[in-house]
Sequence to fold (702 residues):
Amino acid sequence: MTFVPLPTWKGFVDFLPGKKGNVEVARSHFTRDNDAFVGWLSKSAYSFALVAECRKKKNINKSVIVWVPEYFCEVSLAPLREVGAKIFYYPIDEKLEPKYSSVYKMSTISVPDIFIFVHYFGFAKPIAKAREFCQKTGAWLVEDATHCFPNNKAIGTEGDFVFYSPHKILPIPDGAVLLAQSTGASKLNVDILSGLSLKEYVFNNKKNFVNNRFVNHNILWFIKRLLQKFGFRSKKIPLMFNDDASVFCWQTVKISDVSLRAIPKLLSAQMSVCLSRELNLKILDELVEMNPQLGLRPSLRSPQSEGTPYWASYSSLNSKKSFKILNEMGIPVSSWPDLNSNCKMDSNDHSTALRLRNENMFLPIHQSLKGHDLLSWFSHKKMNDSLKNITFEWDSLSLVEWNEFLLNCLYSNILQSWSYGEAKKKNSIWNLKRLAIKHNGILVAVAQVLQLKFGFFKIYRINRGPIFAKNCPESLKKSCFERVSKELGMLSAGRVLFWAPELRIQQENVTCIYTSRFKLLDVKGWSSSLLNLKLDESLLRAQLAGKWRNLLNSAQKNNLEVIKSSDEKTFTWLLENCLEMMKSRGEKFPIKLYQEIYNQMKTSGAHLTVSVALENKIPIAGIVCVPHGNTLTYFLGWSGSDGRRLRGHYLLLWAAIICAKKQGFDFFDLGGIDEVKTFGVANFKVGLGGERYRLIGEGISF
Fold:
């Protein structure tokens, strides 16, 4: 396995000669300010030097003083030292934030010209105090976000300069972004960097470039990644825990056309990349917990911070021993950073940096790694002790028994409801089979399985299943997943299973699915939010976002009438409005399937509810909520122009939540949240609060 992500086979096409990268398309991913200056470099180490050169012009014959956090990679400061900057190291606290009491004390002795603030390991750190310090001292504030994705809204809000290093998180040979903006602490002129060209910087530091023979870095990178893609790995001598990189590799300053061409394409899929890293971190945390001999525990995590993990970080009471064990297991582990020698020697003033360096190590979690790759690192064995006691029964449960099981499980969903299964069977080419999974004769899980037959060959599909009993132990779930995979996904027996398990990344043991030969195809699993209706109404209202609550208050003052109905005429009216709305967006709408769901629910006695908002007896908005088990789910919604103006949806949804609580439902599911495709709708739903969840995604077993 590699320390860095590998390009896809399609990604290698970007190395073929072609058009130059579109700077405007690329810049849109990094800044929300059209007036901001964006510089494109090969490494962020050069960004430090360029900002110092700018400050040197302002200082006029005075040395530039740069303050850097004590916990920082020394080798990346080589260009900064070459331009004559004086570097001071300020202390940080346990949260990886500046220790401001010490920072202000330092400023009484020497005032910084440039203050480097770091967002460590992919997560945003609170920066308001740093901005205040820079405004008082006149220092330029630099946000170092070189471990971060540019989609993080909490980054780049305060700095005069913001640094990104896309080459660290994307499969490209080089690439760094230097962002200068007028909205930062010092209110700089955004043209401040335009007077300093890359050519001028190279000329001023020509000894570093003239004396270095540059082999084409891109070609070497391409060859190395291509060999790794084919499975070839260099046999490197294992690193020791205390080993530090010590030599800066000088290369051309300007970003390559290859990287500039690839960045927009890669960042357009950054949601999947972020989700892959989050999932891999979850898997590694579980595997580490299952291997106590490693002596590792998660560290440097900040659950309140926004961002995407850059590495999987762990600490150990005996770091050298743990590091050695990981090396012997063939697991790619690294230590970080290469501290400045003064920080190493001064154990009193830089105790936090030394402790962090001596206790922590890092494992890769980049998007090229898959769940089964991570399991192979730990030689994880399948837990199949209970397989002999697990039995499958097909179509053995009645409607009443099925609904009773869903009512008593912890979570259920619409796709596993009896009515949805019947509607799908009547409106698709799939056959429907209902699976009951029993352990020692006791029902522990159910799943609706869709089936297609092509002679000997069978294709199965399970969407958001199986649904497990409330107290089903994790070890038994693993065995059930493995049995489902073996029973329905065995190519040699002519069976393939396409599977989107009802497996939540946030709460459950996600490694269990990978022990069953499951291969993840799409990491972007279903995401939604669940409201706990067992809370008091006052608490439900208190967890609303402030803006959402204000708009609800406004809607309640608009004298709108709300009616509830389960009759077919009202439901058909809403369906037709939804159809027209989706047509105007150029999207498909399965109106026949939804109509059949209504028919099946009416037949089974589990009526869905249509809520309509009326202004002067005229319907202006409507929603549909569907019951399944102990949960009511927001299923469909439509709003006309008057409905949007009068905030009809706020009124309808809140009324539905309170009604569901009074009817005895335990949960209200908001019915799916997709920040990429429907940002406005997602923002509306998130405003209700609740517990966000995301499923593991869709894969295949064969």
User: Anything to note?
Assistant: The chain has a mean pLDDT of 88.
